Amino acid sequence: MADIRAFRGFRYDLGHVGTLSDVVAPPYDVIDTALQQKLYDASPYNAIRLELTREEPGDDENNNKYTRAGFALREWVAANVIQQDTSRGLYVYEQEYTVEGQTFTRRGFFARVRLEPFGQGKIYPHEQTMSGPKEDRLRLYRATGFNLSPIFGLYPDSDGEVFAPLEPLIRSAPPLVARDHLGVINRLWVVTDSATISKVIGGMGPKPVYIADGHHRYETGLKYLEERRDAGEVADDEAAPNFCLMQLVGMSDPGLLILPTHRLVSGLAADITASELEAALSGHFDILERTGTSAQAAWEHVQMDGSQSAFAFGTVADGQWIVAKLRDTEVMKELAPDQSDEWRGLGVSILHKLVLDRLLRDKVSGTPVCKYVHLLSEATAATAAKSCQLACLVPPATMGHVERIAGHGEKMPPKSTYFYPKLLTGLVFNSLKKD
Length: 435
Description:
With 435 residues, the chain is α+β, with helices and mostly antiparallel strands. 32% of the residues lie in helices and 26% in strands.
């Protein structure tokens, strides 16, 4: 079983900082320069000053965004702006959000989870990682000695038994509330009742944990632990660096939503029209529908089809949309011989391996480059602005795909899943130096 622990988190003292909404921030990987500035302006204590500190002229090895983050955090702790809780607890986290007119509520809890190398325990990754973000996060870990933003973990729990003991406690106590820049309502309860905590941890039993988001942070945690061991700073298996901050959500939670990740393609040697695209696809795809200028109708057809092999394509050169479906997945065995049938059947795998890397390169040439968006409105805005050459609307992967592919040791292609909304930074921090 994964080793789940209650812990003494560090949290903002609202008497010092005012409202929680002013000091929370999204994780580093979804913050652009404009949002970074907005968060800086929100409060001198906003978590952006830890999570993604601004670069400044004259930065060097001894004075840079990482050292500034470390200095700010130590200063805030010394001034009691951020304080460590006196009792170990689990931190129940609820997010209420709306996507395309429908409202969802997702619930889970923050805990400390023991780090395990992938393949040696019950924690499984599902996506590939890149070296750049891991080096960035490692430098921040070294400078601060904290997990600032949580990893997002999922566990199978078809009947909700793990979360059930928490229900009566959160119904009887008011939460701390923060509304983020996207309008998501974030609620936090601190649960310190030892009997309840024991029931929750016991309910996890032998359950595996699948990382939904935060793969880079998890692998960074493993590297940081290795460094601290080599430096003689990890006294035993109970030392703080052995653990990471993780939000745990049941895979059957009704508010757990995976958004599709659509591709906006540029880099083709020439613009492509709908008829030219159909010709490129004809050897392997059937054209199910031509919806003219209606992206909405094309996307609705993909949704109604419900498979991983139907796609909507918008050709910017002539403003047309078509829906195409792969006739036979056998071709994917040739293109990805080392992967499982489940992996080869993913929509993102088919799109990249067959459409972008094979058919479009053969017919149009060039080097396709993708920008990633999640909402239909973002795709239609890009095609209207002619900021790409081809829009590809991709069916979302499911929780079943995550569980089956990750469960037997494979990693899904990059940008296969997008768990919305992101978990906020600033609700609770985890020290890698002390318990």
